[in-house]
Amino acid sequence: MIETTKMSGLFYNKNIKKHLPGICFLSLVAMFSLWLVISTVSWMTDEERLPLSHMIIQGQLKHITADDIREAIDSMDSIGTFMTQDVNKLQNALLSLPWIAQVSVRKQWPETIKVFVVEHQPEATWNNRVIVNPEGVVFNAPMSDLLEPKPALFGPESNSKDVLAFWHQLQKQFSPLNMGVHSVALTERLSWQVVLDNGIRLELGRDAREERVERFIALYKQLEKQMNSIDYIDLRYDTGAAVGWKSEDIAEDKEEN
């Protein structure tokens, strides 16, 4: 039994010596691989070695500037490196700018991010506070940013699309008369009021809106030469209209047609 143990131990020692170089080599490979992984991760997360230091901005910018975009990105807690930065977070930061409707962010090796911006297109103002785009969607850009005057729309918060659609309709109907629409308002009681670009106010009420607009067009042809003297036209009747005159010495005249 003792001799068997000695021989087994001798065989085991010889076996270790035989495979020792291979074991050492594998250990070195494993240590080198671990060091390589640690070094790579350190390099990827080191903002000084792999910074996002360049930005390319594309798109037609009218109401925001490249500085606005840079400031929005700089306001993030951490921009990160080329390898670690999530472009979705960059996009969300830029979408916080009120004039940006859509944005796409891409990374370009080794240190560049490319930003493509689509601005909201202003169609009208809404409740004297914010702006409506051509789809009737309200966005919270300040009216002071507008580069040119826009029609003024008013109404309950959920009715911006309806009010804008009616404004478009009136623009088409009044175009042959060489008139434009300055403002359209829908009251809380769902009554319509229109102000033309010549200052005349049209009271359309709740019902028979289309018929009352047609009635005004017919009436306009009769009163065209007197339009500069008219303050308002109340069409909230089954027939005819009430005409309010600007001159103080002329009483309000109700004309039934």
Automatic annotation (TrEMBL):
InterPro entries: Cell_div_FtsQ/DivIB_C, FtsQ, FtsQ_C_sf, POTRA, POTRA_FtsQ_type. Its main location: membrane. It is found in: Cell inner membrane; Membrane. GO terms for cellular component: cell division site; plasma membrane. Keywords: Cell cycle, Cell division, Cell inner membrane, Cell membrane, Membrane, Transmembrane, Transmembrane helix. The keyword Amino-acid biosynthesis does not apply. The chain crosses the membrane at residues 20-44. The keyword Chloroplast does not apply. It is a single-pass type II membrane protein. Residues 50-120 form the POTRA domain. GO terms for biological process: cell septum assembly; FtsZ-dependent cytokinesis. Belongs to the FtsQ/DivIB family. FtsQ subfamily. PANTHER family: CELL DIVISION PROTEIN FTSQ. Part of a complex composed of FtsB, FtsL and FtsQ. Essential cell division protein. May link together the upstream cell division proteins, which are predominantly cytoplasmic, with the downstream cell division proteins, which are predominantly periplasmic. May control correct divisome assembly. This is Cell division protein FtsQ. The lineage of its organism: Bacteria, Pseudomonadati, Pseudomonadota, Gammaproteobacteria, Vibrionales. The gene is ftsQ.
